[in-house]
TrEMBL record:
Keywords: Isomerase, Rotamase. This is peptidylprolyl isomerase. Its EC number is 5.2.1.8. InterPro entries: Chloro_FKBP-type_PPIase, PPIase_dom_sf, PPIase_FKBP_dom. GO terms for molecular function: peptidyl-prolyl cis-trans isomerase activity. It is an enzyme of class 5 (isomerase). Residues 44-75 are annotated as: Disordered. Residues 44-53 have a biased composition (Low complexity). It catalyses: [protein]-peptidylproline (omega=180) = [protein]-peptidylproline (omega=0). It comes from the Eukaryota. GO terms for cellular component: chloroplast. Residues 153-251 form the PPIase FKBP-type domain.
Length: 255
């Protein structure tokens, strides 16, 4: 814009021939400047495109290298065994497999030792004391466990007896032998039949191998509606519940 104003100003004072040459030279400069600017922008765009392509190639190469390492690790055991066999004979290959077997056995021994340690920590409670929680739940430890406590999402296996306190009607019982232990994902709803929110409060502070007797108030049991279990077992509304629960196993759920 400034150059155009200067050019109009000069047109007033310069002769026609001079003015014409001056205009031509200025137009040439503008054309050259515009061409250089477009070229620079085009080069910048190409540079950015090349940079993006290089980054994408780098990412793909990294992924290929990771996949290659994974395959190499998966094949390493067989490769080592076959290489040792070819070079040193079948005895070396057998020795390698024996080494792997020793690792597996070591893990099994470690697991058994951990289980043995848990069992050693399990103990019956002689002088029971009732614990009263702020939410109204009451429980007594009959046996203190020695294993791990459940976390949300863990696969939990329990032995359970539940009954309505006011009537004594039993609505679930796995200790009698007629029903197997209950397995469920801890903290995940809907609950397995016979299990309520209050019972989870009781279980979450137990350890594997532990056993408790608990009293659950109606608001943490089946509330104002009660429950219909298996069609012929009814839990009345506003029922206080009594449970005996044994935490038998805590493990990571299968994927």
């Amino acid at each position: 814009m400034g150059m155009a104003m200067q050019l109009n100003h000069l047109q007033v004072f310069l002769p026609y021939s001079t003015r014409k040459r001056y205009i031509s030279s200025q137009n040439a400069i503008l054309v050259k400047f515009t061409s250089q600017k477009c070229c620079a922008e085009r080069n910048q765009s190409q540079s950015e495109t090349q940079s993006e392509q290089q980054q994408e190639e780098k990412t793909n190469n990294n992924a290929e290298r990771k996949e290659s390492r994974r395959r190499m690790q998966a094949d390493s055991t067989d490769w080592i065994a076959s290489s040792l066999t070819r070079r040193f004979g079948i005895g070396a290959g057998l020795a390698w497999f024996a080494f792997l077997a020793f690792g597996v056995i070591s893990e099994q021994i470690k697991t058994r030792l951990e289980v043995s340690q848990e069992q050693q920590n399990i103990r019956d409670v002689e002088n029971t004391q009732e614990v009263v929680l702020s939410n109204g739940i009451k429980y007594v430890d009959l046996r203190v466990g020695g294993g791990s406590s459940p976390k949300t999402g863990d696969l939990v296996v329990i032995g359970l007896q539940g009954k309505v306190k006011s009537t004594g009607n039993v609505f679930v019982d796995t200790f009698s032998g007629r029903k197997s232990s209950l397995a469920f994902l801890f903290g995940i709803r809907p609950y397995t039949k016979g299990i309520c929110e209050g019972l989870e409060y009781v279980i979450k502070t137990m350890k594997t191998g532990g056993k408790r007797k608990a009293v659950i108030p109606p608001e943490l049991g089946f509330g104002k509606t009660g429950a219909d279990l298996d069609g012929d077992i009814l839990i009345p509304p506003e029922a206080t519940l009594e449970y005996v629960v044994e935490l038998q196993k805590v493990s990571i759920p299968p994927s």
